[in-house]
Each structure stands twice: as structure tokens, then as C-alpha cells.
Amino acid sequence: MLFVATLDGELLHCTDSLRQALGLAPDQETSLLALVHSEERDAVEAALARLRSGGDPVQLDVRVQDGRGAYTPMSYSVRRSPEGDAIHGSLRRAGGGTTDGVSMARMKAKLLDCIADQMDIGVWAVDPQGTFIYHDGRGIEQAGVKRGALLGMDVFQVYAGTEIAENLKQALTGKQMHAYNSAHDMHWESWFSPVLDADGAIQMVAGLTLNITELRRAEDDVRSKLMQIQRQQEVIRNLSTPIIEVWNGVLTLPLVGVVDSMRTADVLDALLTRIVDKQARYAILDLTGVDIVDSSVASNIIQLVTAIRLLGAEGVVAGIKPNVAMTMVQLGLDLSQIPTQRNLRAALAFCIGMMNGEQQKQARAQKP
């Protein structure tokens, strides 16, 4: 990690690895004194004074503040430039806490880099003011944004008026957040994790953002197909229980197959609505297509006829097959209170005859 500084220690240029290690934005200005712990600034100032006076290169171990605000032991190696108007230096992590010669901090950094490179995620962090101090991950590139492009930028300006800004405001109060949001024409699942110092103050908010665009599209596709299946099932139900107006004031409902409780509810709702809409006087339940009957079927038929009568109409059952009639008798089912006819034609004739009889009766009642 290399850098160039003025004779007073103001940072002029540095490598990307140094900026990343210290969490410095591309255009962020700082100094060697500002980066080290306050207790060690005198030593750094003394080293700078020796270099300004033409002294030999200096190496010293200090604690340097990284992007999380934590202080990490590092070694400065600084010397005066050949022209004498600047300081050239390098920064490396101090020894200690090693595994196979690699510092534990470096291992963690490599692990984070590996995860960010291999997975569709964005890894980022902001300081307590909402300024990006870390911004990396393959998921960021997939969103069309260059890694590190947001370093030094204000998250509340970049994502103004979005759920991301609102979630981050909550996280900056110390609340752990987990949210789903959309940005850059993609879908993301994000975690906002407040990082606190020893005194419990917000040091930064670390974030992990997972690209779930493909998963969301797959969910939307499945949801669309389920809705299509539901619509198809509704069409099938309507086709299986067609309600036909065969005469003025007479509706017929052909029942085919099994008349179970669920189907009875659908039929009942549709039939009663049509009776009210058409002001029907009679509703014929045609059982010609019903081959199997049990006590539940008969109960459902009685329920249909009872509901029809409550609307001021009359239910007529037609087309009972011989085997169905025998089954009803064996089951002891009583349909004696319900008008029954041999087939649909006979039921229609019955309904027309009943309506004609009612009209003649009314006509006689109106004569003086």
C-alpha cells in the first residue's frame, strides 16, 4: 500500500489497495496525522520533521484507523522524494496474529473479496452521516454500477425517496433491518447491520445486498400460471353447471357427474343470482347426467330446492335415472315435498302448465 504526501503529511496520492484498506473515498482528503491514533501523532510529527530537515528514511509502528473506524497496528516506511518536495511511503500491517505467515485481518479481507467476487451480492458500508466508505461485489456490477463508484457519495442523495434510504435511516438508529427493495431495475434482498463502538455509538452501518431478480421473476411466473389455472378452473366450473333460460320465467340447470358440497356451493350461488336477475318463477334441476347418488347428494339437492323457494320460486327435479331412484329408496331419502318429472321436456311442460294455470286464476280473480 503506497502513498505520496506533502512534507507536512497531507496525502496527495495513494494506491487503490490503501484506499480500500482505510475506507477512503476516491476524492477524500486526509493526512498521515489524521489517520493515526491521537496518542501516536507526536511520533509521526517528529518523523515528518526529521524528513523535512533532510534526515534518513523513517520506519515506525503506529495504530491506523481503517474504514470501520477501528485502529489496526501498521508500519509506516517513509522517506523524502529525490526532488525533496514530497514524501514517498508505504504502509503494511504489523506482524502478529498470523496463520501460515498471513495476518488474520488479511485472511478476512481475502475471504470477503472472494465472496464478493463469486456471489451475486453487493457489500457496502456507510459512516454515521450516510457516506459510502465501502462499495464492492459482483452484484453491483450486474446492476450496471462500477465497483467502488459510490465511495464518498451520500446514500441519501443517491437513493433519495426510496425504501433503501428509509431502511438505512432506521439502521442508523441502531435497528437491525432486513428488507426487500428494487433499484437499478433489479430486485434485492438487503440486510442493514449497525456496527457499534465500545460506548454503544453508531460507528457505521454494514450492508449486504443479494440479487434476487431471477428468483422474483420465477415467483412472478409461477404466480401468473397459478392465476391462469384458477381462471381455467372457474371456466370449467361454469361450463359444468350452465344455467339456461328455456322459457320465459323458467331456468334449467343440468347437473353432470358428482354433486359434492363444494360444487353445490358454486351452483347455489350462481343459480340464486340468475333467479333474481331473470325474475324466474321456476328452476329445473336436471339430473339426467348424475349416475351416482348418496345421502350427501340428496341433501345437497334438497338444500338447492329450499334456497330456491326462499326467493319465491319453485324448484323442480327432472331426469332421475332408475338406478338413482332405487338408490334413493334404499337410502330412505324423502323427496316427496319436491316436484319431480320424468325428463326435462316433461318438467318444462309442467312449469308452463303451472304458469298458465296461475295466469288464468289471476284473470278470473280480476273479473267483476
Q: In the CATH hierarchy, what is the superfamily of the largest domain? A: STAS domain
Kindly identify the CATH topology of the largest domain: Transcription Regulator spoIIAA
How far is the N terminus from the C terminus?
A: 117 Å
Backbone shape? rod-shaped
- Provide the helix percentage: 40-55%
Largest sheet: 5 strands, antiparallel
Give the overall average pLDDT: 81
Protein architecture, described:
This protein folds into three domains: 94 residues, Beta-Lactamase; 111 residues, Beta-Lactamase; 126 residues, STAS domain (Transcription Regulator spoIIAA), CATH 3.30.750. The chain has twelve helices and 17 strands. A five-stranded antiparallel sheet has the order 2-1-5-4-3, with helices on one face. It has a five-stranded antiparallel sheet with strand order 9-8-12-11-10, with helices on both faces. The protein has a five-stranded mixed sheet with strand order 13-14-15-16-17. α9 packs parallel to α10. About 2% of the residues have low confidence.
What does this entry show, briefly?
The protein contains twelve helices and 17 strands. It is of the alpha+beta class and 368 residues long. The longest helix has 28 residues, at 213-240.
